[in-house]
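Case study.
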Amino acid sequence: MPDHDSTALLSRQTKRRRVDIGVKRTVGTASAFFAKARATFFSAMNPQGSEQDVEYSVVQHADGEKSNVLRKLLKRANSYEDAMMPFPGATIISQLLKNNMNKNGGTEPSFQASGLSSTGSEVHQEDICSNSSRDSPPECLSPFGRPTMSQFDMDRLCDEHLRAKRARVENIIRGMSHSPSVALRGNENEREMAPQSVSPRESYRENKRKQKLPQQQQQSFQQLVSARKEQKREERRQLKQQLEDMQKQLRQLQEKFYQIYDSTDSENDEDGNLSEDSMRSEILEARAQDSVGRSDNEMCELDPGQFIDRARALIREQEMAENKPKREGSHKERDPGPNSLQPEGKHLAETLKQELNTAMSQVVDTVVKVFSAKPSRQVPQVFPPLQIPQARFAVNGENHNFHTANQRLQCFGDVIIPNPLDTFGSVQMRVPQTRRKPCPWWSAKTPRTSLPPAPRGHHQPLHQSPCRPPRASPSTFRHPFPSLDGLPVSESNRCSHRLLLGKDRASPESLDLTRETTSLRTKMSSHHLSHHPCSPAHPPSTAEGLSLSLIKSECGDLQDMSEISPYSGSAMQEGLSPNHLKKAKLMFFYTRYPSSNMLKTYFSDVKFNRCITSQLIKWFSNFREFYYIQMEKYARQAINDGVTSTEELSITRDCELYRALNMHYNKANDFEVPERFLEVAQITLREFFNAIIAGKDVDPSWKKAIYKVICKLDSEVPEIFKSPNCLQELLHE
DNA sequence: AACGTGCCTG
DNA sequence: CAGGCACGTT
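After joint prediction, the assembly is written out as follows.
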């Protein structure tokens, strides 16, 4: 260690006072001098004698089980939601058909043999693809239909893909031996008639290429095109055949249905009150007719949205059909046997209902559990500290509870409503308290008239003694996860304030929460998707939920990689985004002195270069600067307020210092500040306090000792921060 | 020399 | 928050 004091003395003369301390960020290299000094400091400050340097083994996601349950539930619910999106609508029908196949199994052999099970769903799929492909080719290959894709569908797609490939090869060979007398228009027709074997994108590129090609090559393309045309015609014939078979099967089923149900149902059908059967047959017949009577182009005209509408109607009808026999009372037992169409729809509806019920009830249970814990004075009853040690980092939906409506109001999109506390004036500006002793400024409960009111609108107990802030102040920020620590924080204060719960967890939270996370997700997603060619036609709202990796894999699987921009091929970003800044700020709650290597691992989605690295380092430098400025400011303020002992200095989630810091690093207040940060902040504050009290601030380099202490207090940053999507995960759950 | 840090400034 | 600077460390 160089002699900082001498250098500082020298530089004192200079215009700029240099207070470089060369704080090393590696823990192991701290000098013995500082270790001793620190020990002295702490023993002086901290009679309890707990050791600062205790290494905290951070147990990640200690509450993971609960959060996972919720996450899974929500995701499960989402997958159903996804299934209700326009595109997957077709998949629902495919699922129905598949279900039918499974359910009926041996009892309905005709169904299996009819081709409805495979070709039928294939038709659906391809209809949709070709339909959308004309407007926006990539949509066909977009992953939006994938989440619900079954193994069955996958296999089918593979087969299809192979078939298409083979066809292309054959066509090329054929085209080489064919006469070059084919009209150019053939290509156009082919694209419209049989889009399923030549991907729209391919056709498009072909078209583009053609314009640039010389005459000779154009001819060979025409040959190729005509060959394909023939092949498509053949396929089309086969398809028609299959569809006609399907029609037959459906008619048979319809007849069966009518036999089972009395004439009332039949009348309903005619009235437009469609039963499940007529609904199904309507869809399929429409298709069959399309394929037979119209051009294939028209066949593609079916709006994908109609699928979902029909699917919904189908489910409704199924439910109605389900209830009917019950109302009739005596027919209860007779249904399952002869009714061959009931089981599949029933099964789907029941599964859906069951899943939704389970999910909902579990979610409600979880939430109610947390909320019911709120009024109790004993948090540990619900979250015993020892069961969830080190829960300073919570990735749990329950953590949203400490958000309040007002806080959340501050973060709609990027519109931040300024927190009055953000403009908290400097110490010197403040009117000295009339008095002191018992009214430390750092307590939120301190009735500081010079300060704006607390932003969350909680009511302070009228006769609560403001003199014992941490003990008596209900913490509106308090979260239900206590942390295990061994820090020299005033034990009584910590314990008491841990027991306090926020009392204003507003009811509109769930709503706000949704909007908040949506806005965040939108920001994240739009950022990623803005570079992405795979789904150009999709508004961000539909694309939000998709992870980049999913899109990537989709593109990789199904698209010509050469068509993909460098961005979609790799998640690496050229520069740092506002979200990276936000993430860095949240990381500051854990580490004040991250090494550049650490930054590289935690910002893995950024293409690192010297500039990026130094920018990130600069960020943290700026964070520290703000942090230490606040600390000094509040320490001086405390001294001015007559505080004489560090014992009186404690940082809670209510105190102004905390709020200032929180506003700076966690403006939207959508992240739960780890308990450890409060502890570190308290230590820092006390360090400053003691130094100032001791008059050390006359030395220009007086802060270096404090920096040295604080740089040792970094804790491990949770693993989740390594994820490029951590913001979504952190703030969503 | 390259890098990291803190201070100051805008 | 970033740029510029001085300085310490490697």
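Observations recorded in class. DSSP finds 31 helices and no strands in chain A. Residues 215-260 of chain A form the longest helix (46 residues). We will return to this complex in the next lecture.
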